[in-house]
Amino acid sequence: MKALKLTVAALVASAAFAGVAAARDQVQVAGSSTVLPYAKIVAETFGETFPDFKTPVVESGGSSAGLKEFCKGVGPDTIDVANSSRKIKDSEVEACKAAGVTEIQEIKIGYDGIVFATDAGNADLALKPEDLYKGLAAEIVVDGKLVANPYKKWSEVNSALPDADIAAFIPGEKHGTREVFEEKILAAGCKNAGAVDVIKAAVADEKQQHSKCVAVRKDGLAVDIDGDYTETLARIAANKNGIGVFGLSFYENNADKLKVATVNGIVPSTETIASGEYPVSRPLYFYVKKAHLGVIPGLKEYVEFFLDDQMIGPESPLAEYGLVAAPDAEREEVRKAFAAGNML
Amino acid sequence: MTDIASPTVRISARPASATRDIGIKRRYAAERRFRAYGIGAISLGLFFLALLLWTVVSNGYTAFQQTTITLPIEFTEKVIDPKGERATDGKVLMTANYPLLVREALIKQLGIDASKRPQVKQATDMVSASSRTLLRDIVVADPSVIGKTIPVTLLAEANVDSAFKGQIDLNVEESKRKVKDQQVTWMNELASAGVLKKSFNTGIFTFGASSRPEAAGVGVAALGSLFMMLIVLVLSLPIGVAASIYLEEFAPKNRLTDLIEVNINNLAAVPSIVYGLLGLAVFINFAGMPRSAAVVGGLVLTLMTLPTIIIATRAALKAVPPSIRSAALGLGASKMQTIFHHVLPLAMPGILTGTIIGLAHALGETAPLLLIGMVAFVVDYPGSPMEPSTALPVQIYMWANEAERAFVERTSGAIIILLIFLVVMNLGAILLRRRFERRW
């Protein structure tokens, strides 16, 4: 009987402490796995530099999941910051509004380059958007007609490319990177290859024209990777002919295992991306709830610390990790906009 | 061989005294085949187990060693407290430029020209950036060190650590690797001087998450897992056992209890992510509990473990022979006394085994934790289950996605730690069973 009494007491006790919803004393961040490594560096350094505040908690899970959590409402039981590898969508702003999150501050932290790389043992590779489009699109134009992609080897696409089977590991559709890949590579390649006119003649609807351009072949030669870049790296290690899509920072950390391809003859690097020469890059953002500033201890300081040049400047730990710093004027503008409290 | 398809015909055809073919060879052959299948299945299983252990251990054993650099650090007052304000302003010691101390010690040790900035940067890059907090903690704990020179053991930066362990191919072009030739030269120099060496990595057990591999550990994750396991144990064992005793011993057998039984069996097979969704909706959104907290994780895992425990407990209660119950009732015990004094103690080993297997299952779960915000980067130790923390399998998952080479060994290292936890739990289950098991 004694044991029973004890367990009942334990039950009551645990139920009691579970019922207390404590006020939060650290910043909570969620969102993009691309921004995650940067946010982690900032959070960790923030915790070390400001001993008065607790280190922010950074959840991963993807831009969309993060923004969804962000738009759940205002209050200490909702997150303060959503990291995103893309701009917030209108539909998400609407959802935020509906839940009472009306004051959102958008902050651009810099740029992320997207690179194509093969196994380190391969020859140098020079890619063009039109080659990638011809090799990877579901339907391409041959003799003025739209046909299912007939190419099996890169050399068939362009004789300058190696005589290797087409095998590409591209980010899956839930990744923010996929959108950049579609816009900057497939859509651009579609245009450069002159396929747009044929598609326009075949399909009237403008949206459908675009989706015809960016549709990826489904015959197994282009593989969607839903996991992280580590999975793409493992796929390339297993298939030496494979071309993988990586973030610049991931490539730089694994440069001894990978050979990066040039796009339009430009080698991707923080310099060529910052100058805009290298075509495939995208801005990275995070979003802050203005209502939480001054309520959640350390939130304002965290954002200011993030925006400081010692974090996102050209010679900062984030730049060292692979973030492409925004130009000086742009960084200054972002800081000013945050200080002024500009909202979406 | 004789035809054995129709033995009955043959039996009637032959006299009973002659040797009858009762298919003895055939039956022995079937037995031998069955044994071979069994051995085959087990060897296949053992082969894959060995393969798994081999890959994990061969990748991970190096994670338990960490390269350290022991430098005589001169705690100069000019650097730490240039204006002599530390008595009045406590912040001075917290925000002092400690990395400068490391830099100066390195310059002295390696004999570099301090005016050559790129060289100095390469040298300071060899020491972990976590040295700032390490030196700060030394000074804050004992301000009297200011002005003295003390040898301090600093962590080597992760790339130097990997290079020293031979995990980075140094034959690759210099521009393509994270460790530069000059750093390798220095590394070998320091190693032969005995300044740089490998030692047991206690940090992997005690540190919280970090973006720097050398300063990353499973401490916060292990504590979070411990909190969750305690909550699961405290909640699911009494609830599960009480529910099973009622269902097995007291409840009438009717359609309703049948329905409940079907539901419990069903719940045991529900994918764990569903429990995560439930936890998000009920505990966080409705009850307003904090995100990323071990208490929510514990509650979600409790729900997930309950069906397992109920099924195991009911099976254990069923296995107690009815003669025990009849004897107790026959001697005048009440139903309650029969169950609590006789049936339950006999069923205990089975119940404990089921509980520990359920706990081990819950310990390895990540999917439900994703939705309640426990797949997160948590640096600070949680003071209570209400504060943000993470869990061991989550830490493995997060490290597996890291870009840095040094996280590869740490991922396997964390898997080894988790496996040790699981082995200890399962051993406990076996020992408890041995200790309490009674045969009749």
Automatic annotation (TrEMBL), chain A:
* Residues spanning the signal sequence: 1-18
Query: Where is the chain membrane-spanning?
Result: none
PBP domain ranges (all copies): 19-309
Q: Which Gene3D superfamilies match?
A: Periplasmic binding protein-like II
Native organism taxonomy: Bacteria, Pseudomonadati, Pseudomonadota, Alphaproteobacteria, Hyphomicrobiales
Q: Does the keyword Signal apply?
A: yes
Q: Which UniProt keywords apply?
A: Signal
Name of the featured protein = Phosphonate ABC transporter substrate-binding protein
Q: Does the keyword Nucleotide-binding apply?
A: no
Q: Which domain of life is it from?
A: Bacteria
Q: Which InterPro entries match?
A: PBP_domain (IPR024370), Phosphate_ABC_transporter (IPR050811)
| Biological source species | Ensifer adhaerens (Sinorhizobium morelense)
From TrEMBL, chain B:
Instruction: Give any Gene Ontology cellular component.
Output: plasma membrane
Q: Report the membrane topology from the UniProt record.
A: Multi-pass membrane protein
UniProt entry keywords in alphabetical sequence: Cell membrane, Membrane, Transmembrane, Transmembrane helix, Transport
- Membrane spanning residue stretches: 34-57, 220-247, 267-287, 293-317, 338-363, 413-432
Where is this protein localized, as stated in its record?
Cell inner membrane; Cell membrane
Extract the GO molecular function terms from the UniProt entry. phosphate transmembrane transporter activity
The record, for InterPro entries, names: DUF3333, MetI-like, MetI-like_sf, Phosphate_PstA
What Pfam families has UniProt attached to this entry?
BPD_transp_1, DUF3333
Acyltransferase: is it a keyword of this entry? no
Q: Which SUPFAM superfamilies match?
A: MetI-like
Q: Which CDD domains match?
A: TM_PBP2
Question: Per the database record, which ranges form the ABC transmembrane type-1 domain?
Answer: 222-428
| GO BP, sorted A to Z | phosphate ion transmembrane transport
Family stated for the protein in its record: Belongs to the binding-protein-dependent transport system permease family. CysTW subfamily.
Q: What is this protein called?
A: Phosphate transport system permease protein PstA
